[in-house]
Design a protein that fits this description.
Distance between the termini: 18 Å
Helix content: 55-70%
Structural class: alpha/beta
Number of helices: 7
Shape: globular
Oligomer: single chain
CATH topology: Rossmann fold
Largest sheet: 5 strands, parallel
Strand content: 5-15%
């Protein structure tokens, strides 16, 4: 399963000629695409109109939704603390997304460099990483 991060979805919805469009479509077709509430909320906050909101909401209905439980919140706090000790002051939402992926053994498909830093210290898999 692949947790598709906000940065990829922005490319997907904004530019249909983006090289990420066929990759996202193939993950959806293979029933391998997942998201969580943070990713959905980040996308919805950037919508310019109801049409965009509806497009996102309807697109996400067929994807796997990943919940946050108590241990995910704990892991995100631990992850954030460890990253700060290593010199990386990362957004807590990115730490939550990473903790969610770690809990469910998902890889993350992202353009956000924060996840590369996290993967140096935690067993976080990055989709497409060599």
């Amino acid at each position: 399963m692949i947790l598709i991060d906000t940065s990829i979805w922005i490319e997907y919805f904004r530019d249909r000629s983006s090289p990420f469009v066929p990759l996202v479509q193939s993950l959806i077709a293979a029933d391998e695409a997942a998201y969580n509430g943070i990713i959905l909320a980040e996308l919805l906050q950037g919508c310019q109109n109801n049409r965009e909101k509806q497009r996102i909401s309807s697109s996400f209905k067929i994807l796997h939704y990943s919940e946050f439980d108590f241990s995910t919140w704990e892991t995100s706090g631990h992850l954030s603390q460890k990253m700060r000790r290593k010199g990386y002051n990362l957004p807590l939402l990115d730490c939550l997304i990473a903790a969610n992926a770690l809990k469910h053994h998902f890889a993350i498909f992202t353009l956000d460099k924060h996840f590369e830093f996290i993967a140096q210290f935690f067993p976080l898999r990055l989709f497409g990483a060599k």
